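During the reporting period the student researcher (J.K.) took over the structure-prediction task from the postdoctoral fellow and processed the backlog of single-chain submissions. One of the processed entries is reproduced below for the supervisory committee.
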Amino acid sequence: MQPLNSVSALREFLAVKASIVFVPTMGNLHEGHIDLVRQARNHGECVVVSIFVNPLQFGPAEDFDKYPRTLAEDCKKLQGLADAVFAPSVNEMYPQQQTIYIEPPTIANELCGEVRPGHFRGMATVVLKLLNIVQPQVVIFGKKDYQQLYIIRQMVTQMNLPIRIIGGVTVRAKDGLALSSRNQYLTETERAEAPFLYQVLTKISQCLQNGERDMFKLEHDAKTALAQRGWQVEYVSTRNRLTLAEPDSEDRELVVLAAARLGVTRLIDNMEIDIG
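J.K. obtained the following structure tokens:
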């Protein structure tokens, strides 16, 4: 495996590669990331993993400075799985002040975007920069960040990029908690409580599959149940899976998404639902 820190070195390394699969990450790798890298091997000759904590997608009161950075450990985990690890500095990714941005669609102002203004603008901008640097044929993102995945797919389509985007299924702990680098912020008591977010999504899914159609009531009940247990709820929302618009009565391919804080830790999760 080749660790590379500069754009020029990565491009030189990739110049002779015929088929590139790319897995972008912010590092502090867990089994969810590793699963995506394993999947990547099935889609091309050369697997590239990026590790970059992108300042553009963090708000002024968010955790950019304390976000866990574990590059040496991450590289050990990627031995035998990735062909190259691209770990640039902020100055390497932004040699000039970034004044040109990708403007994401209006959905970027809803759900996570409502409480994290500018987040998806910064995310889309760095992803486009990374795609231009790596020039892969296939890119794999996890479905846990469902809204992010949707916006990236829209960007790739609308910008006519010759790239196939694959969404990797969310990897969970045995108790259902979606794996995330931010889970390590949880106290022992909070970690025991954290799977309840997945449980409320499961309940909504089961109710919809059993014929319940009052989505507003299901969402309200879920938010109430979380709040009663000490969660600070940002949203619980059922959406059309293909458009992320609010669904109508005819929609059968749905996704329920949620974000809530437990102590200082912000957790997100989602569940795809097919109504027969």
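The committee noted the following: The chain has a mean pLDDT of 97.
J.K. will present the remaining backlog at the next meeting.
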